C-alpha cells in the first residue's frame, strides 16, 4: 500500500493526520504479512498497529485480552469510529448465550473485523471449534 493510502485510512478510521513514532512501519509489516514485535509505552499507540490492518485486510483479527474492561473499551472505541457496530466484538464471560451467538453470527457472516477474546474463553471447546471455522 502506498503511504498516502495508509495516511488516508488512518484519518478515516481514527481521525489522525499522521502516525506516531514507528507505527507506520509496524502497520506496513503487519499488512505485508511479516511477524512484527512491537514494544511501546502505555499510550504509545500499540492497538492501532493491529486495528488498522484488521480494518483493511480480509478476515477477522483475533485479539486475546485478559481484561474485560479493556476489551469493552477497545470495542466501544472502534465502533465509535466506524459506521457499523458489528465491526468489533468481544467474547467473554460477561455475555449471555444469546449475545455470544449474535457475535458468532456476525463473525461467520464476515461482518466483524476485530474479535477480542478472553484467554479463558479460548479453552472452551465450543469456542475452539468456532475459531477453527
Helix/strand layout:
Elements: H1 3-14, H2 23-31, H3 46-56, E1 61-64, H4 68-81, E2 88-91, H5 97-108, E3 114-117, H6 125-132
Parallel strand pairs: 1-3, 2-3
Helix pairs in contact: 2-3
Observed structural traits:
single chain, 133 residues, mainly alpha, Rossmann fold, 2 domains, 3-stranded parallel sheet, 6 helices, 3 strands, 50% helix, 9% strand, globular
Structure description:
It contains six helices and three strands. Helices cover 50% and strands 9% of the residues. The chain has 133 residues and is mainly alpha-helical. Helix 2 runs parallel beside helix 3 (46-56). The protein has two domains: 1-57, no CATH class; 59-133, Rossmann fold, CATH 3.40.50.300. It has a three-stranded parallel beta sheet with strand order 1-3-2, sandwiched between helices.
Q: Structural class of the secondary structure composition?
A: mainly alpha
CATH architecture of the largest domain: 3-Layer(aba) Sandwich
Mean pLDDT: 90
Number of helices: 6
Largest sheet, described in full? 3 strands, parallel
Tally of DSSP β-strands? 3
Quickly name the level 1 CATH class of the largest domain: Alpha Beta
Fraction in beta strands: 5-15%
The unreliable regions are none
**CATH fold annotation of the largest domain:** Rossmann fold
Rounded to the nearest angstrom, the distance between the terminal CA atoms is 29 Å
